[in-house]
Design a protein that fits this description.
The protein has 495 residues and is α/β, with parallel strands linked by helices. It has 2 domains: 2-232, P-loop containing nucleotide triphosphate hydrolases (Rossmann fold, 3-Layer(aba) Sandwich), CATH 3.40.50.300; 249-487, 3-Layer(aba) Sandwich (Rossmann fold). The chain is built from 16 helices and 21 strands. The radius of gyration is 23 Å and the shape is globular.
Length: 495
């Protein structure tokens, strides 16, 4: 791809971007949120038409007017945001786009099942074929997106943030799959914000900044620091963990049970106290009850049994930002208003004080580095990382008593992720009202990122099949927590 340009109105997404990839390699594509990575790959996948530059396949010019053209050329993409049909089953979603092998009006289910069996062995993904997609966890939906691409057997595969909600062992297994695909002569593009994953998987790496290519290299020539400097133009300073004493209990669950969408037990006999000024970390493989547990804590789901005591002001960062947290057709100000409509400073009777809302939006844009910087930008036009920044900024402001955060740094580049983690850590610092009461929020951090849990949490639990297993301070290691996540059993080094 040479000199590719693409704008959305006044927003310049690509400004002469270049990338060259070869058969038989895994090619990493990195850059800050909004750097143009997804837009560049959407051009290659036929989702967008460029306004300048060219795409060459095997040295020959290629022009795609629609995704089917790219697919006919052997190009497939796993998108950052899910493209599944929620009301169809797993096997029905896998059948979408597979036009050959069936009989008459029947889809080629036998052929797809045979391929699915082989792909389960290759990837280790255990996905039940007759379950409705709307009943799957976010992690299972991500696995299904990957399987849907692999079933189609393309020659050029594009993966946009495929590991964001996967457990560490699943990430390792997926990197192994990437290497196997490349060894078969395919080209694998990997967009990721976790630079250690790009370095572990990639043969060569391209760095984008502000829509342009700023660095191309082979993996052996760079490390995390060098890639970070190329991405942001400077070294990223990582803050130390903030220590603070916990205050009074702000939220409490006693013997709580809840069922999932299919009637299965999703939360089992959970007991938890959250105190002001502390971060409680909840680690686990996605699909072990995190959705139901987080929704109970956020007050958007009722428990079927047990007692739930919650404060008034709760912020909630869900796993699916577009499906649960944002309205794509609303602009930044309107999306922020979703959390402000009950505050008297932003209301005048039944009317909204839009001047105050726009001022608050400007503060959030500047503080969190949301791009583009216009409050009139529609949420659907933001990159995934900037959408996440918008949600985090709103919910941190909203969660003055309790903040429930599921994978809050999902889709964020290294600089933005460190900023958000720093914001969460700073919330633990002493903050009292005029009467001397502790006004720090309690934070429940539910994450598949073990490094994030270990860096931030004061107390750690692992959620396994809906139950919370406490982890002692002496066992706070990736090995012990990873063992608990996968089996519910502590490894041989347990005291």
């Amino acid at each position: 791809m040479k000199g590719v340009r693409k704008s959305f109105g006044r927003l310049v997404a690509l400004d002469g971007a270049d990338v060259t990839a070869y058969s038989g390699e895994v090619h990493g594509l990195v850059g800050e949120n909004g750097a143009g990575k997804t837009t560049l790959m959407n051009v290659l996948a036929g989702m967008l038409r460029p306004q300048g530059g060219e795409v060459l396949l095997g040295g020959e010019p290629a022009r795609f007017s629609k995704p089917r053209d790219a697919w006919d050329s052997g190009i497939g993409m796993v998108h950052q945001h899910f493209t599944l049909v929620p009301r169809l089953t797993v096997i029905e979603n896998l059948a979408l786009g597979v036009r050959s092998g069936g009989h008459g009006l029947h889809l080629p289910y036998p052929r797809i099942r045979k391929k699915l069996d082989k792909l389960r062995q290759l990837t280790g993904f255990a996905v039940t074929e007759n379950v409705l997609v709307e009943d799957l966890s976010v992690g299972d939906r991500q696995r299904l997106e990957i399987l849907k691409l692999l079933v189609r057997d393309p020659k050029i595969l594009i993966f946009d943030e495929p590991t964001a909600v996967l457990a560490p062992q699943e990430v390792t297994d997926l990197i192994r799959v990437f290497r196997k695909l490349a060894s078969d002569g395919r080209t694998v593009f990997l967009i990721a914000h976790k630079l250690d994953e790009v370095l572990a998987a990639g043969d060569r790496i391209t760095v984008l900044r502000n829509g342009s290519t700023v660095h191309e290299c082979v993996r052996s020539d760079v490390d995390v620091s060098a890639l970070t400097r190329a991405m942001v133009g400077k070294e990223v300073l990582r803050g130390a963990k903030v220590s603070a004493s916990a205050g009074p209990v702000i939220a409490k669950l006693v013997d709580v049970w809840a069922t999932g969408a299919q009637g299965q037990t999703a939360v089992t006999d959970v007991n938890l106290e959250v105190k002001r000024g502390e971060i409680v970390g909840i680690a686990g493989v996605d699909g072990n009850g995190q959705m139901e547990f987080s929704e109970i804590l956020a007050g958007v789901r009722s428990a079927e049994r047990g007692a739930v005591e919650l404060p008034d002001q709760i912020g909630f960062i869900p796993a699916d930002r577009l499906g649960e947290a944002l309205i794509g057709s609303f602009d930044l100000s309107e999306n922020l208003t979703l959390a402000l409509v009950k505050e008297p400073d932003f209301r005048q009777g039944p009317l909204i004080r839009w001047a105050g809302v726009r001022a608050r939006a400007a503060e959030a844009i500047e503080r969190f580095g949301i791009r583009p910087t216009s409050h009139r930008t529609k949420a659907r036009h933001l990159s995934g990382g900037n959408q996440q920044k918008l949600v985090v900024s709103r919910e941190i402001d909203r969660g003055r008593d309790l903040l429930v955060a599921r994978n809050p740094t999902r889709g964020l580049d290294v600089n933005a992720a460190d900023f958000v983690r720093g914001e969460l850590s700073q919330l633990r610092l002493e903050r009292n009202d005029i009467a001397g009461f502790d006004r720090r929020p309690g934070i429940v951090l539910i994450s598949t990122d073990l490094d994030e849990i270990l860096a931030l949490a004061d107390r750690v639990y692992v959620i396994v099949r809906g139950s919370l297993l406490p982890v002692g301070h002496g066992d706070l290691s990736r090995e012990v927590i990873g063992s608990l996540m996968l089996s519910g059993l502590v490894g041989p080094n347990e005291d």
